[in-house]
């Protein structure tokens, strides 16, 4: 069976998720399209890289990502670093002819994302952006129902992505609150996932009209290190520095075509953990999803008997998308890891079959344009057409 050597750049939260997916994908999807081999991992220094190598089961460690890209054994470069370095790494990897999986958001701005798109298109390498939530079987089932016309023409998409890990003003100023590293705040970090889902299920955006807020204007300094995602609180003597990204965005959407919609997103919503929801209304039915109950898809079809009409719950399982590889009984429990395993399967399959990935860098660029438009609209308080963003 064909093998593909993986070079992973970054040794934090997402390194755990991606390493687990490379190790387990063939156990779920067998015969696997190819076997991913955990060949090398790079981090900012050799000590961190060696630690990641031993923890995540890689063969080699590099203290500089350039060494990994120059390693002729590497077929796939997987970028799981903070956002500011995605572009430089992806462009170098494309020029070296490597296939690329890059974490979201693709880049800090649309202009930066465009340089990455140009590089992969010029090199002709397989490229994917890790918007993994659309690979939750229930969301893929929603897509199937929409494509089959089960809810008719789509009228409205209402999405949310709410978390609470940054609600405490004493949680540190990690890289996620610094524009120079993250690009934007809740917008690029989490709303981008819902933008991906909206584009996947409904289609391209025409324009947006946004409110953009920073509720906590400064936080205690965190110098370097992994983002602890609010699990660490700083003592009162730690100096504070400004937050220069958004804490919350709320925007209306006009889709291309006639559908309308909205997305709301914050990481300061007490009691909300990974509250990705959407409700879609079509002319002949509705669909509702909540990631905190991710085995379930709620549907209501207009032609249900009138005395039984209402939302009903489908528990995803073998009869549904990716069911052939995942668990043999509905509701055994889809987790975050499964979305990454499916992502790994689709990515490796696209390399082996030489077909484009979805979402790829073009999708990542389109999402970056939408994010730029949201920020622009937040400033001007006007509708901003996506076509006005390069
Ligand atoms: P993290 O802070 O946990 O880890 C980042 C890692 O990258 C650290 O090991 C750090 O030392 C390393 N790093 C930083 N600069 C580097 C460089 N120049 N060369 C090599 N290594 C470098 O960050 P986390 O949460 O893993 O986020 C990484 C990326 O994944 C971000 O783009 C983030 O937006 C994305 N992400 C995506 C998720 C998803 O659900 N798809 C979930 C969490 C993060
Ligand atoms: C933090 O908000 C975070 O880790 C995001 O970076 C991810 O993209 C999201 O899926 C989970 O939350």
TrEMBL record:
Name assigned to this protein: Gfo/Idh/MocA family oxidoreductase
All residue ranges annotated as the GFO/IDH/MocA-like oxidoreductase domain in the record: 141-287
Pfam families associated with the record: GFO_IDH_MocA, GFO_IDH_MocA_C3
Entry keyword set: Oxidoreductase
Gene3D superfamilies: Dihydrodipicolinate Reductase, domain 2, NAD(P)-binding Rossmann-like Domain
Transmembrane segments: none
Leader sequence segment: none
Domain Gfo/Idh/MocA-like oxidoreductase N-terminal: 4-131
Lineage: Bacteria, Bacillati, Bacillota, Bacilli, Bacillales
């Amino acid at each position: 069976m064909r093998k593909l050597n993986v070079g992973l750049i970054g040794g934090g939260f997402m390194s755990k998720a991606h390493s687990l997916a490379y190790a387990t994908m063939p156990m779920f999807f067998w015969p696997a399209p190819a076997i991913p081999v955990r060949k090398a991992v790079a981090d900012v220094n050799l000590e961190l890289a060696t630690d990641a190598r031993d923890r995540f089961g890689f063969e080699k460690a590099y203290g500089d990502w350039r060494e990994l890209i120059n390693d002729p054994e590497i077929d796939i470069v997987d970028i799981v670093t903070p956002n500011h370095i995605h572009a430089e790494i992806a462009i170098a990897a494309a020029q070296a002819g490597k296939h690329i999986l890059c974490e979201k958001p693709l880049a800090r701005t649309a202009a930066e994302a465009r340089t990455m798109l140009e590089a992969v298109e010029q090199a002709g390498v397989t490229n994917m952006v890790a918007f993994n939530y659309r690979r939750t079987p229930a969301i893929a089932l929603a897509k199937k129902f929409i494509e089959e016309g089960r809810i008719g023409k789509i009228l409205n998409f209402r999405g949310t992505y709410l978390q609470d890990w940054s609600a405490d003003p004493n949680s540190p100023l990690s890289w996620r609150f610094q524009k120079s590293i993250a690009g934007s705040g809740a917008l690029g970090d989490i709303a981008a996932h819902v933008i991906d889902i909206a584009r996947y299920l409904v289609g391209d955006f025409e324009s947006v009209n946004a409110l953009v807020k920073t509720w906590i204007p400064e936080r205690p300094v965190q110098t370097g290190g992994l983002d602890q995602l609010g699990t660490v609180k700083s003592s009162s003597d730690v100096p504070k520095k400004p937050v220069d990204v958004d804490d919350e965005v709320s925007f209306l959407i006009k889709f291309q075509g006639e559908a309308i919609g909205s997305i709301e997103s914050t990481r300061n919503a007490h009691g909300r953990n990974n509250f990705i929801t959407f409700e879609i209304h079509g002319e002949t039915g509705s669909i509702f999803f909540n990631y905190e109950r991710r085995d379930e898809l709620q549907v209501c079809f207009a032609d249900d008997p009138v005395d039984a009409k209402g939302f009903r719950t489908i528990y995803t399982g073998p009869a549904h998308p990716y069911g052939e590889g995942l668990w043999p009984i509905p509701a055994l429990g889809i987790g975050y890891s499964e979305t990454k395993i499916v992502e790994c399967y689709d990515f490796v399959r696209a390399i082996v079959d030489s077909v484009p990935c979805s979402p790829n860098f073009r999708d990542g660029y389109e999402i970056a344009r939408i994010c730029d438009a949201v920020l622009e609209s937040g400033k001007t308080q006007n509708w901003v057409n996506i076509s006005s963003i390069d």
